[in-house]
Design brief:
Blueprint lengths: L1 H21 L4 E7 L4 E2 L4 E12 L9 E5 L7 E2 L6 E5 L5 E9 L4 E11 L2 E11 L6 H37 L16 H15 L2
Helix pairs in contact: 2-3
Length: about 210
């Protein structure tokens, strides 16, 4: 009887030792698809993120619960269940994926928190995603830049034209009566401006 009890106790001890050895101490998560993806605003993305769950030795861990969490505000979206949190289970290869995400229209970077759990082991990482700027946002800025560029050249041209006009007036006021400079032939390109602007200068210059 005592021998039977000793044998049962030994078998139980071996079974408990095996169970303790089978327990997972550490989990590791790695994103295998979708990291850094850029999504058009307001679109539905059938493929979003896929991760691989392994133990401390790099062996795939199946049956782990993997949860994905989207931000509550700012650039974000909702999963197929209408919530900002979804849960998937890793397969025999340790892979777990979440599909069917609808993004909002707020451009910018956002993070997806990913947590894996099995038995007493847990692990977490963060994946970064992006929502692109809406189409046509950059066009007004380019148009404004072009308008500013044209305005600057118009101002420069006006200054150059003013300087030439001032030089012309200075030459008129300093020229002697009857000189060839004052006798601009009618019909030449400078005839009309010279006569209309130069007349007050000649009148003021007389004794």
């Amino acid at each position: 009887m005592n021998i039977a009890r000793l044998g049962l106790a030994a078998a139980l001890a071996v079974s408990l030792a095996g169970a303790a050895k089978a327990q997972i101490a550490i989990l590791q998560i790695q994103v295998v698809d979708g990291e850094g993806a850029v999504h058009p605003p307001g679109t539905h993305t059938p493929r979003f993120l896929a991760v691989e769950v392994t133990d401390e030795t790099g062996k795939p861990v199946g049956g782990a619960a993997v949860s994905f969490h989207l931000p509550e505000d700012g650039p974000s979206g909702t999963f197929a269940n209408g919530l900002r949190t979804d849960v998937a289970t890793s397969d025999s290869r340790g892979h777990a994926a979440v599909h069917g995400v609808t993004l909002n229209r707020q451009p910018g970077r956002f993070q997806v928190r990913i947590v894996a759990a099995k038995e007493q082991a847990r692990a977490g990482i963060v994946s970064f995603q992006y929502i692109a700027e809406p189409a046509g946002v950059a066009a007004p800025a380019a148009a404004r830049a072009g308008a500013s560029h044209r305005t600057r050249w118009i101002a420069i041209a006006a200054m150059a034209g003013g300087g030439a006009l001032a030089g012309l007036l200075a030459g008129r006021s300093g020229s002697a009566p009857g000189s060839s400079t004052a006798q601009t032939a009618p019909g030449s390109p400078l005839a009309a401006p010279t006569l209309s602007i130069g007349t007050p200068a000649i009148t003021i210059g007389k004794p």
